[in-house]
Amino acid sequence: MKNIFKVSLAFALVILTFSCTNEIDNVASSNGFQLRQDAEVVSPLILLDENEALDYAKFVWDRSNNGVPTESTYSIVVSDHDLDPDFSDAVESTVGVSAEPDARTCSLTVGQFNDLINALPTFNCNQMNIDIRIKSKLGISTNALFQYSNPLTLSVKGYPKSKPIIAFATSSTSAQDSQKLASSDYRTFTNYEGYLYLDPGTYRFFKPDQCGDFASPIVYGISGAATGSLVLDGSNGFVVTTAGHYYITANLSESGTGALTYAIRPFNTGTNGFGIFGGATRGFGFINTTSMNYNVDTKKWTVTMDLINGKKFSFKTSSTAAVATLVGSGNGTFTESPIATFSGTGSPASDGSIKAPGDFVNNDTKTNYTIEVDLSKPRNYTYKLILSP
Predict the structure, then answer these.
(1) What does the alpha-carbon distance between residue 247 and residue 366 come to, in Å, rounded to a whole number?
(2) Burial 206-222 (b: 16+ CB within 10 A, else e)
(3) Average pLDDT, stretch 229-245?
(4) Residue pair 117/111 in contact by the 8 Å Cβ criterion
(5) Is 203 helix (H, G, I), strand (E, B) or coil?
(6) Which of 112, 154, 330, 376 could bridge to 340 as Cys pair (CB 3.0-4.6 Å)?
């Protein structure tokens, strides 16, 4: 009887073990998948801005095999084949990728692909070899399984989307390392501007080649006055006898209103110099601008002062007859050390355009800040409010 019991128990254990072995859940695993380029869409070797809406390429790929039936999501990844073969500085995007994951297609226009390669830190406007692969993602971002397809390598010459720059320098040899003026848009060559601190010397405008190289720049001389006409290959320049601050604009278009013109406007430091104004700086009235101090080493303007909570302010180059007024952006939701970008010239609303942090209660409800403005990067001017301890 004991033997019969032992045999029955052993048989039950075998059945139980077999049953458990066959009920193990599927486990996700990385198996890779293949990426192919659709031959029906021929990729151009040279990308042109006027062709931005045309098709560049279409890609298709196999379903990523994760070892489980759950569907993956996909994105496209591009990298510089020669300077970043391990995809350490790659750009990832879902642009052009089908919204239906199981479609497994990506169609890119010339403009879309040009935007992707422009985002690469090694982008240049010469011919580049670009690696393209597809990234598969299964699960949530904090605990996801990623897979990558094989890379495809395409040779292409893109066009820069960065804002065109010109140099205002004393010689062609110093143009590369000199301060720059920038246009408002990569297609625009009529409204270059910059806030420059100039040492004594004779200055002219230098335009680089389309890749931003100043090795053989186009040179524009000036007619001799603070405002006037630009002269191609002109030898005359603007003479600075005493170091100081200047707001400079230029139009390098050869036709149209204002073609080949410039303006060089000096502004001061100290009283009636560059500063902050608006309702946030005082209880009433806008008679004087609170002047800011310039640091030659950091190239920043600073002032420590109270701002009335919830009221507005802006920056300009003097309290009267302003050379330029910088219209800011900001809604007062920042706290300790905010940074926001502002740009442009002209006249803002009389009370300014940047809202000081906090809610307005009365003119006595103020907060003390160190206010810092950086004008050294043309068309990318920034301000920072640093809460005083």
Answers:
(1) 32
(2) bbbeeeeebeebebbbb
(3) 93
(4) no
(5) strand
(6) 330
Strands 91-93 and 73-80: antiparallel
Q: Map residue 278 onto helix, strand or coil.
A: coil
Identity of residue 32: G
Helix (H) or strand (E) holding 110: helix 110-118
Dist CA 378 CA 246 (whole Å): 13
Model pLDDT for residues 138-197, shown as the tens digit of each residue? 987 778 889 999 999 999 999 999 999 999 999 999 999 999 999 989 999 999 999 899
Q: Are 197 and 239 in contact (CB under 8 A)?
A: no
Distances (CA, A) of 149 to 71, 74, 218, 340: 16, 10, 46, 39
- Closest Cα partner for 387 from 329, 307, 313, 325? 307
Model pLDDT for residues 104-135, shown as the tens digit of each residue: 999 999 999 999 999 999 999 999 999 999 99
Which residues, including other chains, have CB under 8 Å from residue 93's CB and lie 6 or more apart?
Answer: 75, 76, 78, 116
Angle at 305 between CA 299 and CA 311, to 5 degrees: 105
- The pLDDT confidence band at residue 330, using thresholds 50, 70 and 90, is low
Contacts of 293-300 with C-beta under 8 Å, sequence gap 24+, read: 293/269, 294/197, 294/245, 294/269, 296/197, 299/197, 299/374, 299/375, 299/376, 300/372, 300/373, 300/374, 300/376
d(CA 133, CA 35): 7
CA–CA dist 149, 196 (Å, integer) = 49
| Alpha carbon distance 292, 37 (integer Å) | 58
Beta bridge partner(s), residue 206: 167, 219
Phi, psi (deg, nearest 5) at residue 45: -80, -30
How many whole angstroms separate alpha carbon 78 and alpha carbon 55?
17
